């Protein structure tokens, strides 16, 4: 029997799951959410899932604020548990310019972000186990935190199903079907689904899918390592995300006894998202340890507890591609989040759903259109470190 759908969402990472949830909840008809492996089986599963509204562009700040609001009332809005831990975010820095901070403090303030600038003495009080020089300062954002990326994505996908969506796991879209310049369906390794609307949420695989309808997306997969350590006794459990802009490393809790840490950024060499080295090298571990121990003496001897490489779907300017793309009617994208997509994901699906219904929303996603409008400039933190 030939299947039909009103919308096929390709990819059940956090963006596909959020998109399917909001579409199904918003009454978009028969919504199919499809993933080649399963819900949260791609980069989403390895995400730091940190949510902090530090940006130079309004849409990101608005989306992250909205997503944090959803996290705070997750059970009521979505249902289930996203594993959100709202213990705040502390950035160490020597300056507050956009290139250094990746954010525009005045814009953030105007959009309702409550932050506090902390001097070196304040940093020492707030961060036991860390060393600071007097020229260093901090940015404290109390309404920030991190979630469990797998729980979040599963909760969104299950909520989509409760609202009537069909979830198809272990099924790969092998081609997008079009007649003239209009989408007519997708072909999968199990058959065909007729549809007039496809949303490409395939992360690092998005460019391959788009190529199937002649659309070229500039998305490359780049890898980056994350490392787990046993928590040193000098680093108290239960604190905020510690983001060190000076040494360009971050640290956050995983459990009472384990922390996760990584350099800011990713490597500069494209990889194949289906076949890349998922381990981290001794060189990587050593360089991370150096970065961490410049700030926390206790990290010098912290016990290595494992690590993994993950893939980021990078665009040249560090911005995602959102909206109808390439002049192919019925082909929409929500991909290319460039290492930055978890924090906005819960809310993005809502705005996309409204736009698909022909409505405008309070968040202007125009800067993420593809081809890019000339006014869209590079995200300042997208070039921080390339290894
Ligand atoms: C190590 C790491 C740490 C990060 N930390 C943060 C953070 O702290 N804060 C933050 O905001 N962001 C962070 N990010 C970025 C964020 O996690 C990603 O932007 C986000 O998870 C991307 O989700 P997605 O749904 O777009 O894509 P993905 O998670 O890539 O999901 C795409 C899905 O599409 C499926 N798919 C692909 N092709 C097909 C096909 N042909 N047929 C069917 N299914 C297909 C895949 O199987 C996959 O499940 C981090 C990323 C990484 C890798």
Describe what you observe in this structure.
With 387 residues, the chain is an alpha/beta fold. It has a domain at 3-49 and 149-219 and 317-383: FAD/NAD(P)-binding domain (3-Layer(bba) Sandwich). 25% of the residues lie in helices and 26% in strands. The chain has ten helices and 20 strands. The protein has helices at 14-25, 58-72, 74-77, 98-101, 105-110, 120-126, 149-162, 206-211, 282-293, 342-356, and strands spanning 3-4, 7-10, 31-35, 50-51, 89-93, 116-118, 137-141, 145-146, 166-169, 173-179, 182-188, 191-194, 198-200, 220-230, 241-244, 249-253, 258-263, 304-314, 321-324, 331-335. The strands form four sheets. An eight-stranded mixed β-sheet has the order 6-7-5-15-16-17-14-18. A six-stranded mixed β-sheet has the order 9-3-2-13-20-19. The protein has a four-stranded mixed β-sheet with strand order 1-12-11-10, with no helix packed on it. β19 and β20 form a beta hairpin. α1 (14-25) packs parallel to α7 and α2 crosses α10 (342-356). 50% of the residues are buried. The mean pLDDT is 95. It binds flavin-adenine dinucleotide.
Features:
single chain; 387 residues; alpha/beta; FAD/NAD(P)-binding domain; eight-stranded mixed beta sheet; six-stranded mixed beta sheet; globular; binds flavin-adenine dinucleotide
């Amino acid at each position: 029997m030939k299947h039909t759908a009103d919308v096929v969402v390709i990819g059940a990472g956090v963006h596909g799951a959020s998109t399917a949830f909001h579409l199904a909840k918003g009454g978009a008809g028969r919504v199919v959410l499809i993933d080649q492996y399963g819900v949260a089986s791609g980069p989403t599963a390895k995400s730091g899932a940190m949510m902090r509204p530090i940006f130079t562009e309004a849409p990101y700040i608005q989306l992250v604020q909205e997503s944090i609001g959803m996290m705070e009332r997750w059970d009521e809005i979505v249902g289930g548990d996203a594993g959100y831990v709202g213990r705040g975010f502390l950035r160490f820095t020597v300056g507050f310019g956009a290139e250094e901070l990746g954010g525009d403090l005045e814009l953030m303030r105007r959009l309702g972000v409550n932050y506090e600038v902390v001097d070196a003495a304040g940093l020492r009080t707030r961060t036991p186990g860390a060393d600071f020089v007097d020229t260093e300062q901090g940015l404290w954002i109390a309404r920030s935190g991190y979630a469990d990326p797998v729980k979040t994505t599963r909760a969104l996908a299950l909520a989509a199903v409760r609202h009537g969506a069909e979830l198809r796991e272990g099924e790969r879209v092998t081609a997008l079907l079009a007649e003239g310049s209009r989408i007519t369906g997708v072909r999968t390794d199990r058959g065909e689904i007729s549809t007039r609307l496809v949303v490409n949420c395939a992360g690092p695989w998005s460019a391959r899918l788009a190529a199937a309808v002649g659309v070229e997306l500039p998305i490359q997969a780049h890898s980056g390592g994350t490392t787990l350590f046993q928590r040193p006794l000098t680093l108290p459990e239960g604190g905020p995300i510690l983001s060190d802009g000076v040494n360009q490393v971050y640290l956050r809790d995983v459990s009472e006894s384990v922390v996760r840490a990584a350099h800011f950024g990713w490597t500069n060499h494209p990889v194949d998202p289906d076949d890349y080295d998922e381990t981290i090298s001794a060189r990587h571990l050593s360089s991370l340890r150096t970065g961490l121990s410049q700030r926390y003496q206790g990290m010098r001897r912290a016990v290595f507890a494992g690590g993994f490489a993950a893939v980021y779907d990078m665009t040249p300017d560090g911005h995602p591609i959102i909206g109808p793309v390439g002049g192919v009617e019925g082909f929409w994208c929500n991909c290319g989040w460039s290492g930055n997509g978890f924090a906005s994901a819960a809310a993005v699906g809502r705005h996309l759903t409204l736009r698909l219904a022909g409505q405008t929303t309070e968040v202007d996603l125009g800067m993420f259109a593809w081809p890019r409008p000339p006014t869209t400039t590079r995200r300042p933190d997208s070039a921080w470190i390339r290894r």
